[in-house]
Amino acid sequence: MEKYVLGIDIGTTSVKTVLLSSAGRMVAESIRYHDLISLHQNWAEERADLWWENAVETVRDIGRQIPGGLENVVCIGCSGMVPAIVMLDQDGNPVRNTIQQNDARAVEEIAQVTGALDQKLLYQQTGGTTNQQHIIPRLLWVKHHEPENWAKTRMVMGSYDYILYKMSGVPSIELNWAAESGCFDIRQRKWLTEQFAQFEIDPSWFPKVSAPSDVVGCTSPEMTQTMGLPAGIPIIAGSADHVASTLAAGIIDEGDLLIKFGGAGDIMYCTEQLETNPQLFFDYHDVPGRYLINGCMASSGSLVKWFTRSVLESDDPHILQKLDQEAEKIPAASDGVLVLPYFLGEKTPLFDPGARGVIFGLTLSHTKIHIFRAILEAVIYGFRHHIEVIEQMGHRPKQIIATDGGAKSPLWCQIAADILGAEVRAYPSHPGSALGVAFLAGMQGGLFHDWSEINRFLTEYKVYKPDLSAVQIYDKAYHIYRNLYQQLKPSCEDLQNLYR
User: Cα 386 to chain center, whole Å?
Assistant: First the structure.
């Protein structure tokens, strides 16, 4: 009898669910879309209740695609954005919209926490220093600005933790959400409760931390009616989306590097040693004994989406293909137009929530197509910046894999090969994080027995080789890109005080 595992991914713009079989194939998938909410400058929020509605719909949709429904599902995993913050009341209901990992509102709180904590000690314990991604500054923002919501809060967890909690009734936090929270000792694997005490945050709000493949609960009896799932199916702690996507791309060996064109931009380098860098993040790999040196750009695909919706005001489902066709006619470096992609501030490697987006070099001869291509190039300049930091640590990528939305664009992938000056293997229809966390559930559920079996799902790809003439142009443009931020940084700081 064929058995199945279910993987659910809570992404920035959608919930995606996949079903894998014991025969080593992806049997079904389903997706439902939602939007990022940005009510004010630098805000990035979403609705956790909509995530749940979409998760229910995708699971039920998959059940309708399978003869006999979901009776033979033996394990479930969920992945999602980290560290998105879901604040729950005593009944387990969200007290407000989530505060996303790329939210940059807590500028004053970041300064407060930075000044209050010994940053050298913090780096030794967590692998990072205080930044906009850490949860304490964002929680303090709620405490300072929304005391009514603060008073209601009884539990804090991540995006995928929330979905698993809804399915099982058991609260938990996955290891990498904790690792990226800024208040978790990555070597001793424990919360830094002294930080919670220092900022008057109740440590009981944070559930037990579990490793990705640990079983943390089972589907509750209510899920039979809600999702069409039998009660008692084991549920693992799950995975950070970028880590699950890394596994799903076959990044399991030292020297493998992933560039992920999601709503944010992720750069993941696999190593066999626990290493940290003050300009980057650290994660535990889903594969035991492996670690990830990684970075996350606040804006990547979300910047493209902003351009098509807010600037072009287009709802054409084929707009990106049309723009790509026109942008292919524009030479490398967009006839001198450069974009700084810091439209939500920037996380790694700058850690500057005050950084701002810039479109530089415009003349009356330029068009919207130049700006579009320059946006694509800007994201890859950001990837290159991260790779340079990794190389300064003594590492050099052995292979570069590209996944997520941008991997569907031959233009964007060729730009990546040209700016990075290296061969790029792109998976245009790669299921991403949902596949990774489903495979993780499959390892726990006994459907798979070796991590290399993930390669059975990686059959459709295209290789892009760098064009040497474009490489030379991009080398020059990249240095302008790097210098531009340094020159404008004082003005970005002044801009923050414009209305104060």
Answer: 15
Residues 258 and 110 in one domain: no
Domain that holds residue 24: 4-242
Q: How far apart are CA 42 and CA 38, in angstroms?
A: 7
Q: Are 160 and 79 in contact (CB under 8 A)?
A: yes
Q: What is the pLDDT of residues 101-146, one digit of tens each?
A: 989 899 999 999 999 999 999 999 999 999 888 999 999 999 999 9
Torsion-angle region of 112 (φ positive above 0: left; ψ -120 to 50: alpha; else: beta): alpha
In a 3-state reduction of DSSP, which class is residue 476?
helix
Co-location of 180 and 329 in the same domain? no
Strand, helix or coil for residue 426 = strand
Contact 434, 399 (CB under 8 A): no
Beta carbons within 8 Å of 148's beta carbon, 6+ residues apart: none
- Is 149 part of a structural domain of the chain? yes
Q: Which of 242, 266, 292 is the last residue of a domain?
A: 242
The total domain count for the chain is 2
CA-to-CA dists, residue 78 to 12, 56, 227, 287, 295, angstroms: 14, 13, 15, 16, 22
CATH number (domain holding residue 272): 3.30.420.40
Confidence of residue 495 (pLDDT cuts 50, 70, 90): very high
Q: Which two tokens stand for residue 13?
A: 């713009």
pLDDT at 31: 96
pLDDT of residue 64: 96
Report which of 375, 425, 429 is spatially closest to residue 397, judged by C-alpha positions: 425
For residue 74, is it within any domain? Answer: yes
Give the pLDDT band (50/70/90) at residue 261: confident
Residue 440 falls within a domain, yes or no?
A: no
- The residue with tokens 């142009």 is 473
Query: Do the strands 215-218 and 209-210 form a parallel or antiparallel pair, or are they unpaired?
Result: unpaired
User: H helices of 351-394, where?
Assistant: 368-392
Q: Residue 123 domain-assigned? A: yes
Strands of 416-469, DSSP E:
424-426, 462-464
Q: Is a pLDDT exceeding 80 seen at residue 255?
A: yes
CA 432/CA 102 separation, integer angstroms: 20
> Is residue 280 domain-shared with residue 332, that is, in the same domain?
yes
